[in-house]
Amino acid sequence: MTSPPEEIIVECPNCKRWYEAWHRPSINRLIDNFSDEFIEKASTAICPYCNCKAALGIWLTNSVEQITIRVPQARFRRKSDRPLYALTLDHIDPTCRLSIMKVIRSITNLGLSDVKELLEHLPQILIEDRDQKKLESLKTTLEAAGAQVTIDYSSNQ
Known about the structure:
Largest sheet: 3 strands, antiparallel
Mean pLDDT: 78
Helix content: 25-40%
Low-confidence stretches: none
Number of domains: 2
Radius of gyration: 21 Å
């Protein structure tokens, strides 16, 4: 028996952008008698941005031979899972350093020395959260204080 396909979100190993794809986690090779071409198509995704092919992984059950697909392995998650967003501090205006430090301390509950050290090594992820609206609000607050901030999918999903 073959598992049904599920919609997933894939991070391209080449350009690091996220895109939607379909994935079939397992195939029973002997019962369904799939060709090697079908198995390769079912276990890879093609990035719509850079056209690179990425391996998603597939479990072949009852297979008599080993199939090797030589493409980079991609990270992916189910589309139904809520994404984890990261609020990244990219750059600060040196003239607004004090006001930015106050905002960061109120957001992160870090001490003064920790915030100073954080500002010396930019870019830095300040917060990871599943609530994108909350991060948009924090981004607006930081930008008003003089910081350059981005929100993106977290690399630690």
